[in-house]
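seq:
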Amino acid sequence: MNQTKAKIIAATITAIDNQGYQDISLRQLAQKLGLTTGAVYKHFANKDDLFFTVAQQLSNDLYQTIAPQVQADMKAPKQALVTLGVALIQAFETAGNKMDFLFFNPSITAVYQPGASPKDFPLLALTKDVIAKIAQAYPTVDPETLFIKVWAFLQGYAMLVRHNVVAIDENLMIQTINDMIGVN
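struct:
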């Protein structure tokens, strides 16, 4: 990756962290970097292309932080899912705008569709791997259905934690995962 492209990505991440992603303008990003808008378009086809690339970077960064903890728990896949869930919710608590972007920005919604390959999004791939391990341990569990349940729960719970409505409760996470799987 060339230096200008890396600077554009870094500036976008900073802007997302500071103000959220909804009002980001390529013109303003270019201006902050001392570039022309054309220079931005030299590296990214459009704003969606930039956002997709930034989401990949954020997924990779978060994966690097979370993966060692989750992979250490993979012999007990339910615990690995609890570890992953707690880590994601903590990330929402400390870096809410970046997490909102990673979970909700429209440029990557196709990545979350059933059957989509998460190969460019290591955090999503890790989540699907954990869910696949649970489905192996509990054959009545459909991995796609469990993914949707887990993803929806984590997003909702994370928003409640982020907005100080509730605190992170690992026991609630464990009970909810057991309920989703159908075990006690």
